[in-house]
Every structure is written in C-alpha cells, then in structure tokens.
Write a structure and sequence with these properties.
The protein contains nine helices and ten strands. The N terminus and C terminus are likely disordered. The chain has about 250 residues and is α/β, with parallel strands linked by helices. Strand 9 and strand 10 form a beta hairpin. The strands form two sheets. Strands 6-7-8-3-9-10 form a six-stranded mixed β-sheet, with helices on both faces. The structure holds adenosine-5'-diphosphate and magnesium ion. Magnesium ion binds next to helix 2.
Length: about 250
C-alpha cells in the first residue's frame, strides 16, 4: 500500500483530490475538485445540462482517460484503487455504471445471457446472476430478447447485469429519464433495497427532485466548474407513500 493510500480514512469509498479535466486544451469542464464519499452513502449528482456530471462519472469509471482522452489532473481513489492507473478489469470489479442510453448497453440474445456476460468476463461466480435476477424480479424475462423489452424492463436487465457483479460503487446516469411513473417508483424501491441490503454506495445523476429527495443522503451540486457537497435540502419535497396509486 502506498503512503498516500494509508492516509485514506477507511470509512471513505471515494476520494477525489485536486481533480481538473478538460476535453480540449484550457477548456476546463471540472476544476480543482476535492471530495470524499463514505461507504454506503447515496449521493445525488445534480446541476445544469452540460455542467460535467457525466464527465465526472466517466472519470470515476476510468472511461476518461482510458477511452475518452483529454487533460486530466489530480487523483481519484475508489476502495483504495488508483483509478488513473488501474486496469479496466480491476475498475469493473468495483465500479458499475448504468449509462443513459439503454440500447447501447444491450447486446445479447437473451436476458439470461446478458446478465451472465459480465460475470463470465470478470470470472465471477455465475450464481450471482440468479441472485441479481431474483433481486430485480426479472426471472420471468430470462429467455426474452433484451432489445424487445420496454424501457423499464431494459433498465432492470442492465441494472441486474451490473449488480450481479456486486460493485462497491454503482453509478446511475439519469436513470429515470425514460421511465413512466410506475417505472420510476420501481427504480426508487430497487435502489433503496440495494443500498440497505448490500450497502452499495450509489451515485445518482438525476434531474428529478422527487427521486433525489427520496433517495439521497447528500447532494453534489455541479456549478461553474466546481462541485459543492451538501445535505439533501429540506426544500426537496419528500413524498410519503405513493404505493396506493400502483
Ligand atoms: N467527448 C466530448 N468531447 C468534447 N466535449 C465534450 C465531450 N463530452 C461532453 N463534452 C462537453 O463537456 C461539457 C460537460 O458535458 P457532460 O459531462 O456531458 O455534462 P452533463 O452530464 O452535466 O450534462 C459539455 O459542455 C459538453 O458539451
Ligand atoms: Mg449527462
């Protein structure tokens, strides 16, 4: 363990130090970001369109700089792993991400194959696929063709394929964007259960005050190249019990 790593408080899952990023020279999207996030927290990432939320998520997942290049300064550690230096496979074992575009994440002929694919790739226990399908209640879709499913079902399949690998950090990029009310409600319940039963740390990028208010302990507010970390504000309305509608 490097001297830096030993300084990280063991209660923190994510440590971001002096992080700056630009896709084009001197055109900074993120500037001098310093954040620590504790294990088991649910964090909402909010901010205007184009404020850098997806970019930040790509840095945590190692997509930047491994796939998208740019000008990156500073350090990111997740579960003591130096994300800038780690191999994609090492990162894949601890960070799972559901991208905004559902269709680009589905490529198998059946739901079951879709869920086993990641486990096979990472050489993990294939039984975890069944556990994830049970958890999201999609066993009945096992033989279906993923591309033929509804948006809500596609999202549950993608979520199952990721939670099957038991990531320590789950990033969801605007997951409620394609969903109807019932779909949003089910997403909300599943995220809550995932956090309470598996203690998964969750970063939720969302424009939906209801989802943020219901789920998130803290908010990361992206504004003007920087990020402010604050408790979920009281003014974000908490909705009590809507289940009677469904
Ligand atoms: N691959 C890219 N190359 C160049 N600029 C990009 C790229 N992706 C995003 N951007 C720019 O970076 C800024 C932040 O984008 P993004 O992280 O997608 O914001 P958000 O997710 O908050 O809407 C935007 O101005 C966007 O146009
Ligand atoms: Mg985005």
């Amino acid at each position: 363990m490097s001297s830096h790593n030993s300084e990280i408080n063991s209660g923190n899952l994510i440590e971001v130090k002096d992080l700056s990023f630009a896709y084009k020279k001197n055109d900074w999207i993120l500037r001098d970001i310093n954040i620590r996030i504790k294990k088991g927290e649910v964090i909402g990432l909010v901010g205007d369109s184009g404020s850098g939320k997806t970019t930040f998520a790509y840095i945590l997942k190692g997509i930047i700089p491994q796939i998208f290049k740019g000008y990156l300064k500073g350090n990111v550690y997740i579960n003591h792993l130096d994300i800038r230096k780690a191999k994609i496979v090492q990162i894949a074992k601890i960070v799972g991400m559901v991208f905004q575009d559902l269709n680009s994440q589905l490529f198998s002929n059946t739901v079951k194959e879709e869920i086993l694919f990641g486990l096979q790739n990472l050489k993990l226990n294939l039984d975890w696929g069944k556990e994830a399908m049970d958890f999201l209640n999609i066993e009945s879709l096992a033989e279906e063709i993923p591309m033929n499913l509804s948006a809500g079902q596609k999202q549950r399949v993608i979520l199952a394929s990721i939670i099957a690998t038991k990531p320590k950090l789950l990033i969801l990029d605007e997951p409620s964007a394609h969903l109807d009310f019932k779909g949003k409600y089910s997403l909300l319940k599943n995220i809550k259960r995932l956090n309470s039963e598996y203690n998964t740390t969750i970063l939720l990028i969302s424009q939906d005050p209801w989802i943020i208010g219901e789920l998130c302990h803290h908010i990361l507010y992206f504004n003007n190249y920087s990020i402010k970390y604050q408790p979920t504000e009281e003014k974000i309305q908490k909705v009590p019990q809507w289940s009677w509608i469904l």
